[in-house]
Structure formats: structure tokens, C-alpha cells
Design goal:
This protein is α/β, with parallel strands linked by helices. It contains 33 helices and 31 strands. The chain starts with a helix and ends with a helix. The relative contact order is 0.07. Bound molecules: adenosine-5'-diphosphate and magnesium ion (MG) (2 copies).
């Protein structure tokens, strides 16, 4: 009944049902909160009457009356949403306490210290939560009193101190609100419940929901529960525990407690809590009960639990139980152990691990014990931690990590960083970067290229100086759990890999081939760029061919490395894709160079610079993304495609001669017309066959296919398939061309606003747009298969590593996804989850 009672209410009810000791109480449902919100804060008719009837019943059951002078009933009023929102909403303890009931409580317990401690806590919480008194005002008074008394801890204060403190707190509240706190206990209760309803819409709760995709209209439940007291001296305690270690997953009791304390004291860090194990010596009976309750709850829920407890005078009560949040490493270990212990099956285990979380394991991480304070925060665009000196230009950088002032989660910086497995904090809006002065300013702090910073790409935090890191490990748990995923999934998982090193890494991480090898990256290397430029700028066919002849062996060597790493598995090499001017100097920079040389330089140099400027100007395009690129480029300059085909086939022959098994796929980008592919295929096949014939080889199979990344290609896939052995949907470009947005321009501007305003449900570059782009993929697959039933279909692009997109692609029925090496484990698990979800849907 989680959606009605909230997570906390359902947990408490379940514990009571199975006989774990919890205090008595009742839950006001989320439906009541929703009704109150709809009424603009006015409660629905009858709600207050119902609550009072339940309170009457609670008073009868406990033999106590709320706020009475003798044997008073005190309650807690606790928020509790359907999805856990830790620390986002409010709870009030000790409600019902007043001058007279504090006296009654002191008399009953024989412990006036405890009574006044409870009272001062109530005034503070009620003041903050219900009356909006700034919490700091109370904290300041407490600190001042402790200083006056030379007290280190709250527990060092005397009864009289606490009595004075309560009076001071009431004065603080009166000065802040202009009136006394209400003393009528039922009126306090009504206002407290109303404040908890309202805390659902507090700004911090709203922000948290947006960040965690929690709908705004669920509302919170309110749990009214009899107070039990952990602050009744040395035989009382309060604490928090986990049934296993949430950081490592180890099967051990994990937790902390404080003697003579209440509520949040443990987590608030007011006093240093003690290790759970020490409770055994102090309160052995309560400890033994706690151990058996922990076992019971873990078995009951079949998962690691996070538990809040209080011991009052030696008697144990559990106050909350929920599934414990854990690190990725712990998630894998717990899953594996629970399966081994027979508590759950492997499919349940797979359903419980969030694929996105696996990313954490593949990058060095910050030592979790660090205590540094961040300088600022940005988006956690690529996980892991990096330590390094600041560098302000790409030429001098050998990047450990990337920090940007602008750009989103799928900005190029972020995509590239994820691809390389480098941590990235993107769009840190407080940064002011002066690239010329080589300074970075955050508020009042100015850092230069002499400074070192630490980036935490997992959280988006930026720290000054070098923090300690812990290295990534592919553990046994990791391999075991991903092995289960491989047994379940239907989708193949390949890697986007441009180098031999990428391919090796990808294979280690479980890639079943390369789905996209981008050849242009090979042109960008500093030793090759001059040759590429000579090729582009050549005036004659002969000089162009000379440059190409120089490039061929270099490309061949690259391909050999990749074919070697992927022996036995397919490698799809994409022919050159970007427009040629991307390999030339920037137009503006070249103009400036010419100006500089005009002001005083070698005449020869000036002449060359001018000629180059003229070429760059003539090749410049207004919309390079839609210009002379992809197959258009190779059809205009077939010699480039011929050179690349030769390099690919020669590499395959060389690798085969070493006894390995290269599986060659040649992929043509940006095809919009079947005729483009027909012609390009002719060139590729003629060249490849010529190479094979020259080598006297007849049995080296290769396949020729195309990217589908234009809407026209998806719609005419039936005709295109006549010339293709395979389709690879390039969903990055397909998204740009379908929606008609340029990613680089959109992410920094309107797309951010669209996401904020809810005009689009998700960033279409991060998560495949199901209704638009997804439909084109479906159409392309269907039409292609109608022409060629054995057509193989895959998806390359960032979406191939995104769990939500993978679920969609699994349903559409493509054969494989291809993603950056570090996303491969995520994709393997997400592909398995897609199957399990589908099976669950079919059952329903
Ligand atoms: P949160 O959602 O922030 O954890 P809770 O409603 O769980 O807030 O309350 C915080 C803490 O207050 C609990 O962990 C528990 O220690 C204490 N608390 C809540 N209700 C009671 C109660 N009826 N008796 C004793 N302590 C309580
Ligand atoms: Mg709690
Ligand atoms: Mg493309």
C-alpha cells in the first residue's frame, strides 16, 4: 500500500504486521494530502474529524491523553512520500508537550532532565517547521548557552539549563513570529499535519523531485506515532543501521548509535556516534532483539534494509525500514550474495541494479572518506574523479578530466569525456573563465594554470587541490552479474571504437564487435593532419593521389590494430564523414594570420597564407552539418573512398595472414538516396575485389552497408536495402535531422529552457525521442527487412548506451546497439532489463 501510505507508513505497517516492535500510531494517507493541495491548502470535509477519531483510538489503546498533565501522550508527526526523498520534508517530534505535560513527564519518569530536553526539542522543531522560525536562531542560543556553561555536548547541560533553554527558545519563536506558540495539543497536531502537507511543495522538495523524476502530484502521507524516548538516560539510545555494508555490500552489521539521544542526533553530527557493535556491551538484550529484527526484515524483503531504531529504557522499537541505498560496488555484491543465499533469483537481482549506476565502477573515484568542501558544482556529466592542474587550451592539455562553464550532459565535451572514460563536470554556471589571462574565477576565488583542482564527475563537485583517489576494479561480482545479464538479453552490444586501444578495452568490457569505427579521427592526429591538408588542397589529381598514397599505410596500420583486437568479431568501419574544411585551419584564425603577415612578414609566407585563406573561404559552408559530407563527399572525390577501402582490405589481409579472423564491414555515411549507395557500393566492391584478387584471396568475406541518419533514408529504406548488407542507425544525426535542431546550438540555449518548462519530456540527444526518431527507426527496420529479410540492423550513437533508449530499441527489434567502451556494461545490463520488463508486461 505504498502509494497510499507512503514508503515510511507502509514500512511501519508491515513491520507491525509481521511482529517487529514499532510504536503505536496511524497514517494520514497521500490521498488526503493531494486533496488538501487541490483545495489550495483547505482540507477536505471530514478529514480533521477522521484524524481526531484515530487519535481518540490511539489515546484509548495507550491509556494516555495527548498533552495531558499526567502520563501525557506525545507523538511524532512524520512526513513520508511514496518515493524516498531523504531530508527533503519535515518531521516534528514530542508533539503534545507543554509546561504542564513536561512536568507530568518528569514526575512519571523521575527524570526531569529528559522531560525538559524533550520540550526544548519540540519548541525548536515546531517553531521551524510550522511557524517558519529560522533554525539558526535556535542553534545560536544553544551554542551560546553551552559556551557560557563550558559544556562540550548537549548532554553536559543541567536540568536548569534545559529549562532556561526552553524558555529562551519560546522567546526566540515569539520574537520571530509575533505570537506565542499554540498550547492546545490538538491544535498543534492539526497545524503540524498541515505543515507536513505543505512541505511537499517546499522549494527544496520540488528541486529534488525534478532531479529524480518524481511526479509532483503524488503528495506525502503523514505518520502520527506515539513517541518512544531514546533520551531517557543511559539505558536509552537511538540509532541507524543497515543489514549489510552499503558501501561495500559486505555481509556485516553496519550502523551507529548514541546513548541518551533522540531523533536526528545520530546523523546530524552533534555528537560522534558509536559503532553499532558496541551496543552489545551496553544494552545486550536490545542488541540481540535488533539483530533478530534485522535478519527478519532482510529475509522478509529479500534485500538489504536501512533501519532506524530507538531503545527506551532497554526496550527496542523500530521506527523505519526501507531498502538501503548503496554504491554500485555494493549493489553487485549484495545481488550476488542474495542469489547465493537463495533469497532471490538472478532475474530479480538484475531488476534491482540500476544500469546507469555501473558507470561508477569503471572510473577512478574520490576516496569516500574525504572531508573537503567543494568550490562549486556543475552537471555530473561523466563519472569518476580526476585530479590535475588547470589548463586553458586544448593544445597544451593532456586531460585527466574536463570542466566546462557551459554545455549540457550531452555537449561534446561530455560525450567525448564519457567516450574516453574521463570524468567531466559540465555547465558549471558560476565559473568565469578568462582564456587569455588563463584564469578561472569562482565567486571570490581566482585560480590560474598553476593551480590543481579535483573534479568529481559522479556528483558534479569541483574541489580545490588534490584529493585522494581510489582506482576502478572489474571485480568478480561485476563479471558474475553481467554474465547473468548476457544470459537474458537478446540485443547485441558492440562498441564505438576508433583505435586499437579502444577496441581492446571494449572487448574486455564485453563488446561483441565494433559498431562504429570513425576514420576521420585518424586524420586528426598531429602527424597526419599536414598530409590530410595536402590532400585537400592539392591542385592536381597527381598531387592529391600522392597525399592519399601517404595516408593509406597509416590508416591500414590503424585498422590492423582494431581487427586484431576484435578477431572473430565484426568491425564496422565508416568511410570519411565530416566535411573537408574541418581539417583546415579555422577561417577567422587564418584571416588574422593574414592580417598579421600583411603588417610585417615574409612575402612568401604571406602569399601562402593568402592562398590558404582563399581555399578555406571557398570551402566554408553556412550549414556544414547539412553540407558536403558523408557519401556526398566520397562521390565527389571517389579517390578518398578508394584509398580507405584499400586500407581496410589490406589491413584485413595482413591480420588474416597472422592467423586471425577479421570480420570486415564497410559502412557508408549520410546516404539519403538509394542511388548514392548503389554507386558507392560499386566503388567499394570494385576496389575490394581488386585488392583480394591481387592478393590471390577468394574467401575473405566483407560486407557493405549504410548508416541510416536522414529521415529520407529511413522512409526509403526498402530501396536502400537493395544495396546494403546492413543498416546502422546513426541516431545522433537522425535526431538532428528529424527534429531539425543542431545539437551544439540547442543544448546551450532553447533545449535547456524546453526541458525546464516541460515542453519536451527529455533531452532527445540523451534519450531517444520515441515518437519521432524512434518511429523512423522502426519504419527503417521494417522497410529494410521487407526487402532483405537477412538485413542486419544496429544503432550507433550516444543512445546505444542509454538504458531508456535501449529498452525502446529492444522493442523495435534492432539486432544490436553500439556505444562507447565504458558504456558497454551499462548497455549489457540495460538490454537484459529490457527483456525482463517485456516479459513482465506480457505476463500482466
Ligand atoms: P526522516 O524522513 O527525515 O528520516 P523521520 O520521520 O524518520 O524523518 O524522523 C526522524 C527521526 O525522528 C527518526 O529517525 C527517529 O529517530 C525519530 N522519530 C520519529 N518518530 C519517532 C517516535 N515516534 N519516537 C521516537 N523517535 C522518533
Ligand atoms: Mg527517517
Ligand atoms: Mg552521422
Amino acid at each position: 500500500m505504498r502509494s497510499l501510505l507512503g514508503g515510511k507508513g507502509a514500512g511501519v505497517a508491515e513491520m507491525r504486521r509481521i511482529g517487529v516492535p514499532v510504536p503505536d500510531g496511524f497514517t494520514v494517507t497521500t490521498a488526503a494530502c493531494v486533496a488538501a493541495m487541490r483545495g489550495g491548502g483547505t482540507w477536505p470535509d471530514g478529514l480533521w474529524g477522521e484524524i481526531q477519531a484515530h487519535l481518540d483510538a490511539l489515546e484509548r489503546r495507550t491509556g494516555r491523553v495527548l498533552g495531558a498533565a499526567e502520563r501525557p501522550l506525545l507523538v511524532s508527526v512524520r512526513s513520508g512520500a511514496v518515493f524516498s526523498m531523504p531530508g527533503m520534508m519535515d518531521t516534528i517530534l514530542n508533539l503534545g508537550i507543554s509546561e504542564q505535560s513536561a512536568a507530568g513527564l518528569a514526575a512519571e519518569s523521575g527524570d526531569p532532565r529528559f522531560a525538559w530536553d524533550s520540550y526544548r526539542r519540540f519548541v525548536q522543531m515546531y517553531g521551524e517547521v510550522v511557524e517558519g522560525v529560522p533554525g539558526q536562531a535556535f542553534e545560536d542560543e544553544l551554542t551560546a548557552l553551552k559556551d557560557r556553561r563550558g559544556a562540550r555536548q548537549d548532554t553536559d547541560l543541567t536540568v536548569d539549563d534545559l529549562r532556561d533553554l526552553t524558555a529562551t527558545f519560546r522567546r526566540v519563536a515569539r520574537e520571530s513570529t509575533g505570537h506565542d506558540l499554540p498550547t492546545e495539543p490538538r491544535e498543534q497536531l492539526r497545524r503540524a499535519i498541515d505543515a507536513v502537507f505543505a512541505s511537499w511543495d517546499s522549494p527544496r522538495a520540488q528541486v529534488y523531485r525534478r532531479l529524480n523524476d518524481i511526479p509532483d502530484d503524488l503528495g506525502t502521507a503523514v505518520n502520527v506515532m506515539q513517541m518512544v524516548f531514546g533520551n531517557k538516560g543511559g539505558t536509552s539510545a537511538t540509532g541507524v543501521c543497515f543489514t549489510r555494508n552499503p558501501a561495500t555490500g559486505a555481509k556485516e552489521r553496519y550502523g551507529e548509535f548514541l546513548l541518551d539521544a533522540q531523533g536526528e542526533d545520530v546523523v546530524a553530527g552533534i555528537r560522534t556516534p558509536r559503532r553499532l557493535q558496541e551496543l552489545e556491551t551496553v544494552l545486550p538484550e536490545a542488541y540481540a532483539r535488533l539483530m533478530s529484527a534485522m535478519d527478519r526484515l532482510e529475509r522478509h524483503y529479500g534485500d538489504m534494509q536501512d533501519i532506524e531504531f530507538t531503545v527506551e529504557d532497554g526496550t527496542l522499537y523500530l521506527l523505519q525500514v526501507r531498502t538501503g541505498k548503496r554504491t554500485a560496488a555494493a549493489a553487485l555484491k549484495v545481488a550476488r550474495d542474495l542469489v547465493a543465499e537463495g533469497l532471490i533469483d538472478t532475474e530479480t537481482a538484475l531488476r534491482r541494479i540500476d544500469p546507469a549506476q555501473l558507470d561508477q565502477l569503471l572510473h577512478p573515484a574520490l576516496d569516500p572518506d574525504h572531508t573537503a568542501t567543494p568550490l562549486t558544482h556543475g552537471l555530473n556529466a561523466s563519472p569518476g574523479a580526476a585530479v590535475g592542474r588547470l589548463v586553458f587550451d586544448a593544445d597544451t592539455a593532456a586531460a585527466q578530466g574536463v570542466l566546462t562553464a557551459h554545455g549540457g550532459m550531452t555537449s561534446h565535451a561530455a560525450v567525448v569525456a564519457r567516450g574516453m572514460g574521463k570524468p567531466c563536470v559540465a555547465g558549471a554556471g558560476d565559473l568565469r573563465i578568462d582564456a587569455d589571462a588563463r584564469t578561472l574565477t569562482i565567486g571570490g576565488t581566482v585560480l590560474t594554470d598553476a593551480d590543481t583542482v579535483t573534479l568529481d564527475g559522479t556528483t558534479g563537485a569541483v574541489y580545490p587541490g588534490a584529493l585522494p583517489l581510489v582506482p576502478p576494479r572489474v571485480t568478480d561480482d561485476f563479471s558474475t552479474v553481467l554474465g547473468w545479464a548476457d544470459d537474458v538479453r537478446r540485443l547485441g552490444v558492440r562498441a564505438n571504437a576508433d583505435t586499437g586501444a579502444d577496441a581492446v578495452r571494449a572487448r574486455e568490457l564485453g563488446a561483441e564487435g565494433v559498431g562504429l569505427c570513425r576514420t576521420e579521427h585518424m586524420f586528426m592526429a598531429t602527424d597526419r593532419l599536414p598530409v590530410v591538408r595536402r590532400m585537400i588542397l592539392a591542385d592536381t589529381a597527381a598531387s592529391r593521389q600522392a597525399a592519399l598514397d601517404q595516408l593509406l599505410p597509416v590508416q591500414q596500420a590503424d585498422f590492423e590494430e582494431i581487427f586484431t583486437a576484435m578477431t572473430g568479431l565484426p568491425v564496422a568501419v565508416r568511410l570519411i564523414d565530416p566535411p573537408l574544411h574541418e581539417f583546415l585551419p579555422d577561417l577567422v584564425e587564418q584571416s588574422l594570420l593574414v592580417q598579421r603577415l600583411e603588417a610585417g612578414g615574409e612575402p612568401g609566407e604571406l602569399g601562402q597564407a593568402r592562398a590558404l585563406l582563399a581555399r578555406i573561404t571557398s570551402m566554408a559552408e553556412a550549414n556544414p552539418m547539412l553540407g558536403t559530407r558523408g557519401v556526398r563527399l566520397t562521390l565527389l572525390h571517389p579517390e578518398i573512398g578508394v584509398m580507405q577501402t584499400r586500407a581496410i582490405v589490406r589491413a584485413a589481409l595482413a591480420v588474416r595472414a597472422r592467423g586471425l579472423d577479421p570480420r570486415v564491414e564497410i559502412m557508408v555515411p549520410l546516404v539519403g538516396y538509394a542511388e548514392e549507395l548503389r554507386r558507392m557500393r560499386e566503388i567499394v566492391v570494385a576496389t575490394a575485389d581488386e585488392e583480394l584478387a591481387a592478393a590471390g584471396v577468394t574467401d575473405l568475406a566483407y560486407r557493405v552497408g549504410t548508416m541510416i541518419e536522414l529521415p529520407r533514408a529511413a522512409l526509403t529504406a526498402g530501396e536502400i536495402a537493395e544495396h546494403a548488407d546492413f543498416f546502422s542507425f546513426g541516431t545522433n544525426d537522425l535526431t538532428q535531422t528529424t527534429i531539425g535542431v543542431s545539437r551544439d546550438d540547442a543544448e546551450g540555449s532553447f533545449l535547456a529552457a524546453y526541458l525546464e518548462e516541460g515542453i519536451v519530456p527529455a533531452d532527445p540527444f540523451a534519450s531517444l525521442d520515441a515518437d519521432g526518431v524512434g518511429e523512423l527507426v522502426r519504419t527503417g527496420v521494417e522497410r529494410g527487412l521487407r526487402t532483405r529479410p537477412d538485413l542486419e540492423t544496429g544503432v550507433c550513437g550516444e543512445h546505444g548506451g542509454d538504458p531508456a533508449s535501449i529498452t525502446l530499441l529492444d522493442r523495435i527489434g534492432v539486432d544490436y546497439v553500439s556505444c562507447s567502451p565504458y558504456r558497454i556494461p551499462v548497455a549489457r545490463l540495460a538490454a537484459a532489463r529490457a527483456r525482463l520488463d517485456d516479459a513482465a508486461r506480457d505476463d500482466a
